[in-house]
Design a protein that fits this description.
single chain, Rossmann fold, about 30% helix
Length: about 400
């Protein structure tokens, strides 16, 4: 019996090795599909350090292929990715390529006709993390609007969503629309950028001019005289059950998959007086404040590259440490936003009048959650209040999926 069991175990090990899991291939690597569409064209690329084709930047890869890249657009944190969250990044000439870089963050968040006057085709290639308040999806919206409004074809090179295996959170109340939440979606929306782009266009969430142009292209899509409006180059070997680990950190304060997994649950603390772990090696995995009980986990944040200024630098903070292996963190996250940490923090914080900051409601997407926490509403009852808007979003989402869903 033992010999048979040993044989079976060995057989399954050999079988697993014979049929290894296929590597997920981001859209940017499928150059045979999209390079023919941009040959001989003047190209603008929206990119940051995550815009890689294996170990080479997308911009460098296109230049080596003989593609004429005439402009680079950069999002929050900049094209090279070392700016602080919210830091103003001006336009400049990239030293490595000699190409003009235009920052699309702050007051100038959408390309205008002058930015696009010498551009034939626009490309968007950014690694997202699947949360409403992560500003790259807002940059994507403005980029799509600019492409449609200026009649420029747009290619979206899709990338896997590392938080794409669930949907959860309060759906944004339109009254709280901002750059950290522009559309009625939950905090974790379970879509790739390509899927989300089709949702924005299909649900008419773009500007009036862009919506009209999109409708025009849809009705004219069979005409040989009409170029593509925007195309999504899909990932290969990806679906919404995949646990994708980005090979490059998406931004300075999401340096690991553990931070990415916790981000939907701990970004709340950006809207409170607590440190969310910026200025440490575990941002969004640890959080606390100097005035919390001293028997809690302690840490001291300091200025770092990409986090030069934030709350409580140089002060000993007391709070929580949620770090662990990716597998441990996934188990704790449990495919839902965890509210218990912010509820506990509020209960323990001595100066409750100054716990929440002005920006909390923008992050939450409503003015209800803050009041629920103040009133001591249970996590279960808070979750119930997210319905039926959350269920309705899930139905809408299904219409725009490009990949097999997790349910």
């Amino acid at each position: 019996m033992k010999k048979k069991l040993l044989f079976a175990v060995c057989f399954f090990i050999l079988l697993a090795n014979a049929y290894p899991q296929k590597r997920i291939i981001p859209g940017a690597e499928r150059m045979d599909v999209y390079v023919p569409l941009i040959k001989g064209k003047r190209v603008a690329v929206f990119a940051n350090p995550t815009s890689m084709v294996k170990k080479t930047t997308l911009v460098d890869t296109l230049l080596k292929r003989g593609i004429e890249v005439v402009k680079i657009f950069g999002p929050e944190h900049g094209f090279r990715g070392n700016a602080d969250a919210g830091e103003k990044v001006g336009s400049y000439v990239d030293k490595e390529t000699g190409i003009e870089v235009v920052s699309l963050y702050g007051k100038h968040n959408k390309p205008d006709s002058n930015d696009l006057k010498n551009v034939d085709v626009m490309i968007f290639d950014i690694q997202d993390v699947g949360t409403r308040f992560y500003t790259y999806i807002s940059s994507l919206q403005y980029y799509i609007e600019a492409a449609l409004e200026n009649s420029k074809p747009l290619l979206i090179l899709d990338r896997p969503n590392p938080n794409g295996f669930y949907v959860d959170g309060p759906v944004l109340d339109p009254k709280f629309k901002s750059f950290v939440g522009m559309n009625p979606i939950p905090i974790v929306y379970g879509m790739t950028l390509g899927e989300y782009a089709f949702m924005m266009a299909g649900e008419k969430w773009l500007s009036d001019a862009a919506n009209k142009k999109y409708e025009y292209y849809l009705h004219a899509k069979n005409s040989v005289d009409t170029p593509f409006h925007f195309l999504v180059i899909k990932c290969l070997n990806y679906d919404h059950n995949s646990k994708y680990v980005p090979p490059v950190k998406p931004s300075p304060n999401l340096p690991s998959i553990q931070s990415i997994y916790w981000y939907p649950s701990t970004c709340w603390f950006e809207g409170t007086t607590l440190s969310e772990g910026r200025g440490t090696d575990k941002p969004f995995q640890i959080f606390g404040a100097p005035s919390l009980p001293k028997n809690l986990y302690s840490f001291t944040p300091h200025p770092t590259e990409g986090a030069k200024s934030s709350k409580h630098y140089g002060e000993v903070c007391y709070g929580w440490n949620l770090s662990g292996t990716p597998e441990e963190v996934l188990k704790k996250v449990d495919k839902k936003i965890q509210l218990k940490w912010i509820i506990q923090a509020y209960k323990l914080f001595p100066d409750k009048e100054n716990f929440f900051l002005k920006g909390f409601n923008r992050l939450a997407g409503n003015d209800v959650l803050m009041q629920q926490i103040k009133d001591g509403v249970s996590e279960n009852d808070i979750r119930k209040s997210w319905e039926p808007a959350l269920s309705n979003f899930k139905k809408i989402r299904k219409k725009y999926l490009l990949y097999k869903d997790f349910e």
